Amino acid sequence: MEIAIIGGGAAGFFAAISCKTHHPEATVTIYEKTDKLLAKVKISGGGRCNVTHACFTNSQLVKYYPRGEKQLKKAFAQFTTTDTVKWFESRGVRLKAEADGRMFPVTDSSQTIINCLLREIDRLGIIIQMQQPVISIEKETDKFKLTFRDNVIYVDKLIVATGGSPKLEGFDWLKKLGHSIESPVPSLFTFNMPNEPIKSLMGVSVGNVSVRIPGTKLKTEGPLLITHWGMSGPAILKLSAWGARVLKDLHYQFTIQINWLGTMNEDQAREILVEETRLHPKKKISNSNPFQLPNRLYMFLLSKIDINPEMTLEEVGKKNQNRLLNTLLNDEYKVKGKTTFKEEFVTCGGINLNEVYIETMESKVCQGLYFAGEVLDIDGVTGGFNFQAAWTTGFIAGKLG
């Protein structure tokens, strides 16, 4: 049996390994269009590779996927985060969980993961063909005809693991096989704020904030990072993932509202401020910072609402207290545009999940064709979830069930 896997990324590799493990007699070949293998694995997590997430309950795990939640319940029943950890550890790669749940190799190097996958490919005798972009795929009775630049091959089964495409045309060759495509739009991106002075605080991060987009249902919590172009960090990236289609419809021009105190409400915040004033009435407001915000941010917010930092707490008065609380809890900024990092590009969109048997990852419209990874209309928030979906769908597709 001849099996072709198109795409040399995480999903393609895992599909190939699963394929050869479940069908040792088969000839399994990975076709990669570029001269690089596992490119996203290499750069993910700042070069450390965020392999998966320490969420070991499937009903919780699926909640991290803006698209694909329902279908992934069935998929994770076959291969989940626990299986990922065991798979790598049984091959000598130990993983560790960080405080936020992200899991990395204990070496803190993505090369450890790459080496492990390459060793497994080598051990199983899987063939890799690089710089082999597929020009076309045709189904001929019970075989697939794959046309490359310089040759044509016929295979019995085909697994497509080409990743997401930023443009709809990138899926044309799959549409020709009868599949309908959910239009791709960017997910996981940062917010540009060209006219907002808060950019001067680049490098400042806040441990936990609540961010919402007025006029929509979009709201997330998490750490936030101020950058030289605007805002980033898990809170922003999560918002961009859940709001991928909404924000595109807004042409990436919208207002965000930030509660710098996370989940704290007005009554709780007021109580802290009043108590601080009662205990330290002569203290300058600039030296107070009772909410433990980064000092540069606190000073910026005082300046934003024209509160003199030299004032003592007792001089601030109720009116200024109200203005400060309103800014801490309902601060607003104008977003104009987004920044996506090309190498880590994640798309919302891809193969319509209604056209795939999730239990096997086989196409419902073209027998013998399977899918794995981001080519499907599945995407997760930041934190190792997209890799977990790649390992899971790759493992299932490779079984050729």
Q: Could you say how many structural domains there are in total?
A: 2
Q: Which range does the strand content fall in? A: 15-25%
Ranges where pLDDT stays below 50 over 5 or more residues in a row are none
Q: Which shape, going by the Cα principal axes?
A: elongated
Mean pLDDT: 96
CATH top level label of the largest domain: Alpha Beta
Proportion in helices = 25-40%
CATH superfamily of the largest domain: FAD/NAD(P)-binding domain
Total helical elements: 14
Structural overview:
- 34% of the residues lie in helices and 24% in strands.
- It is α+β, with helices and mostly antiparallel strands and 401 residues long.
- The protein folds into two domains: 2-186 and 342-398, FAD/NAD(P)-binding domain (3-Layer(bba) Sandwich), CATH 3.50.50.60; 189-339, no CATH class.
- It has a seven-stranded antiparallel β-sheet with strand order 17-16-13-14-15-12-18.
- The chain is elongated, with a radius of gyration of 25 Å.
Summarize, please:
The protein is an alpha+beta fold and 401 residues long.
Top keywords for this entry?
FAD/NAD(P)-binding domain, seven-stranded antiparallel beta sheet, 401 residues, 2 domains, five-stranded parallel beta sheet, alpha+beta
Secondary structure elements and pairings:
Blueprint: E1 2-6, H1 10-22, E2 27-31, H2 39-47, E3 52-53, H3 58-61, H4 69-76, H5 81-89, E4 95-97, E5 102-105, H6 110-124, E6 127-129, E7 136-140, E8 143-147, E9 152-155, E10 157-160, H7 172-175, E11 181-187, E12 190-192, E13 205-212, E14 219-226, E15 230-232, H8 234-242, H9 244-249, E16 253-259, H10 266-279, H11 285-288, H12 295-304, H13 313-330, E17 331-336, E18 338-339, E19 346-351, E20 356-357, E21 362-363, E22 369-371, H14 385-398
Parallel strand pairs: 1-2, 1-10, 2-6, 10-22
Antiparallel strand pairs: 3-5, 4-5, 7-8, 8-9, 11-19, 12-15, 12-18, 13-14, 13-16, 14-15, 16-17, 20-21
Helix pairs in contact: 1-6, 1-14, 2-6, 10-13
